[in-house]
Amino acid sequence: MAESLKIYMPTYFLNNVEMNELLDAESLNFSILEDNISHTRNNCFVIKMDDDCVIEMEKMLSIKNSQSDSIEFRRERIINRLNNKPPFNLAFLRSKLDTIYDSDKYLLVIDYQRQTITLESSTDNQEWFKEGHITILSIKPANLKYVHIPLFRTTITLKKSATVSQMYYARAGSAVVGMTPLAKRENEKEVVLF
Description:
Blueprint: H1 11-14, H2 17-42, H3 51-60, H4 71-82, H5 90-101, E1 106-111, E2 116-121, H6 126-139, E3 145-150, E4 162-164, E5 167-169, E6 183-185, E7 189-191
């Protein structure tokens, strides 16, 4: 506690030795109380929760965590689960997928005729892949089927080119078996494609 309880007492008590000892002892108790209040206040916010409170929130939300999950990931997962409350729309779903996968690492297609949601996504983290799957299942209506296609994104460079060459074939009667090739190709010439 930053300040002593003595500032709240009348001055005639400050000359009393017993009162000074009592106030010093009580100051320690109030300091512990202030720390406990601060700790409880921090546990009211998911991003500041301690390990024990995170474990209790995971039990409430039926989240099974592995030992390798970091405390930061576990807190973000709790926030994600708490934010999945109806009503939902396509814009809400896209904003959730933007936070999980990034806007350029997924493709969401909703086929209303076939009642299918198709998500093609790419992520480097298996935990966020699972979290995206759980998010879609909690948001999508019951009548829609859900298809998830995992992608591995990489770049491929294609070069368009073509070559032309003239072929010469051996004529019947003039070819010697085993000596004359059946076909002969001239040097290739590159052709410009438009």
